[in-house]
Amino acid sequence: AGVIVAQVEPGSRADEAGIRPSDIIVSANNVRIESMNDFREALAQVDESKSLLLLIKRQDSRFFVVIKPQS
Question: Cα–Cα distances in Å, from 46 out to 21, 32, 60?
């Protein structure tokens, strides 16, 4: 389950957080992500002035990253 990251724009907040292409986003702010629609809905719930906590699966590892708000 989750959504696969297809690309990461250099210099983006995702890039700064260490997200890489082929990573799988498993949850956003502790909400399980099953589909791209789930991910869009989770993003819509986040105030842009707040951080976003993502659970990432990369190969056999799982770890959290924080996407910081735009400054």
Answer: 23, 15, 28
H helix intervals, 9-69:
13-17, 36-44
Amino acid 36: pLDDT = 94
What percentage of the chain's residues is helix, strand, coil (to nearest 5)? 20, 30, 50
Tell me how crowded residue 60 is: count the other CB atoms within 10 A of its CB: 5
What is the reported pTM? 0.90
Q: Please say whether the beta carbons of 6 and 21 come within 8 A.
A: yes
d(CA 25, CA 5): 7
- Give the phi and the psi of residue 34 in degrees, each rounded to 5: -110, -25
